[in-house]
């Protein structure tokens, strides 16, 4: 019986190496998989039971996909590797001298090598109170909260007799002009126009506004200018107003103040920059850019040869000395590299070369038939980029079932413009966004 | 532009009849659809934005389907009928003399004919405090809550060092031996066994218990004895313990006391009888069996010729004088009948004959390859009944997209035994079951 197989039956070395991985996002999961079915005793700790495919989370927030389409239980992903143990728990600290990880329910887990892959969270730049009014897009909970507010604002607008209130409810403000902000703005504009035309009786398409606010001089600042210009044109076509050089100064439940302008809104969304998870504090070290933990070329934390940091929480450097961007592909490559490196070092005693990031291309989708790709040497935009974006993202999903389900929903949506997941959850009042969301204990 | 069509443009009669339907479940939606694209001005009011296909809700609770697979925005279903208006609001009262319906946000809606289709809720027989520990299965919120508790109990059991606690966490108690209780018990047993064998390291299949408790002398009391015997055998094969003549006496967060026996449990589920929604109180009339509103043969509420009650909330009588069961097929047929009757009466001035219920067969599914059908004159059980059950339920889904999505997930599950929606929601602590859940105002 599978359940009766004792731990570490398939150990090959004389000593059992214990690798503990904290966080099962792109980075942690890639590291764990690479260490799968080896003689190394691997423990993966996450405070959630599922891995989330964040690049498609904006589609959950805009009612196009269901949460389960883009998430997978960590146990299911790692279940086939008999040397990997999964724990649903929150890490509260690290003791580098005792070589243990502390968990919230009091237990501690010993390690020989520790991998920190705890990701990042949205940065409200000191305005933590804004989090309640403008959720970011990092968890299923937040995506569902945004979906809820968006749909509820339209329902309230339909019932409203006051035309000013109606317009305010039909206004969505997205703060931050990075890929997530652009994707959300495009998707909200499409969803809103469709719903007004098809399903509502007392709303006019002209009453709807989608406003994308960026503090800096341009949106999609990581992309070359020709792609940014294209994105701006496409956003305008979809009906999105893009406002740059407009830092947000104040916010209430239904109003955003930026550059002395006031925007009443039915739904406010935050996408204005991320900061690393507070894992650096566990080690008593100060993070650098955005709280990220500085790492050596082998991804070990500077000063802690047995502790590694990968993904958004790590501050790795590219060959040119610039920090690597906080992207899924960096996280995945670092996880795979580290898994391989640990295997070679621990099992074969081989020395390990430094990590090299291979840029696979940076992408953002603006809306129906419109996406951009930046491959460094060349770029791609338009319908073909959009198709490539869709194919790549379906391919990156975790298994055949999810690929099939997402493909069908996308094809259905492409043909009918219908979005299948327009649900307002019943217990809306109980929805409280919080930076420290976790499972019941 | 669609959004600019004024209300009632397509009216044919000289006078506009205003029909207000409260509740968009099986009954209300069937009535509304039948009145679609006529000269009657129809308003549908519901406190939720979606219609839920409740017969498959237990599959959401056991991680087999996503909420969006079995729910559809009411606006989307009714969007193509230009004479139907949808309002997301909670009804707080009815004024039969002024002929208006009061809404929670203060507005009132006038009607000429009123249809009450507000359904039913679980009956805790005076123990409202049990609702928090043993959620029923009526809303998406409750299904997600049950899924959450079930999965979390297994996660906690994996971490527990105490073997008594481990066993308690792996015990599920289902109260009520009707179809919902049986379906839940079978599905939990299958899910649990699969997860323990495949994904957990420190749990034994023998530690898992699924206990189905029924206060009466037999489970599935609406079914003939040969089917009940079959169901009992199948439940036993799946590992479900069925205990009859055992009324629940007390309950805490993690313990059920019934017939002087104590059952510690990781998850408690309620399915022990329903009562009608409190719509009877709005009319100042006492409901009869389970709070249901007595109706005449034309489904008008006794004493209120312009108010009709259909579905679970109505107490209709069969030809033999017995009350009609609270089933989806009764609700649907009553809704269709009433829609037709109102159309003929209001538009053509025709008199309307009484409602006749046509029994299409009563069914319950016990597990993989096992279901029962009771068609009155003949019965069906086993693999073929299970296949028929699956085909019928896919067919009853609202559109082609949902049919395809559910079929794919079922085929996938049949082949792999994997369940795609094993998600523990992030904000578990905020999940509070409540009988008066509603959307944010």
From TrEMBL, chains A, B:
SUPFAM superfamilies registered for this protein in UniProt: FAD/NAD(P)-binding domain
What protein family is recorded? Belongs to the NADH dehydrogenase family.
| Residue stretches making up the FAD/NAD(P)-binding domain | 18-335
Species source reads Neorhizobium phenanthreniclasticum
Q: Which UniProt keywords apply?
A: FAD, Flavoprotein, Membrane, NAD, Oxidoreductase, Transit peptide, Transmembrane, Transmembrane helix
Alphabetized InterPro entries for the sequence: FAD/NAD-bd_sf (IPR036188), FAD/NAD-binding_dom (IPR023753), NDH-2 (IPR045024), NDH2-like_C (IPR054585)
Catalytic reactions of this protein: a quinone + NADH + H(+) = a quinol + NAD(+)
- Pfam families linked: NDH2_C, Pyr_redox_2
Task: Name the Enzyme Commission number(s) assigned to this protein.
Answer: 1.6.5.9
**Sample GO molecular function, one term:** oxidoreductase activity
The portions of this protein that span the membrane are 383-400
Per UniProt, residues of the External alternative NADH-ubiquinone oxidoreductase-like C-terminal domain are 360-416
Q: What is the designated name of this protein?
A: NADH:ubiquinone reductase (non-electrogenic)
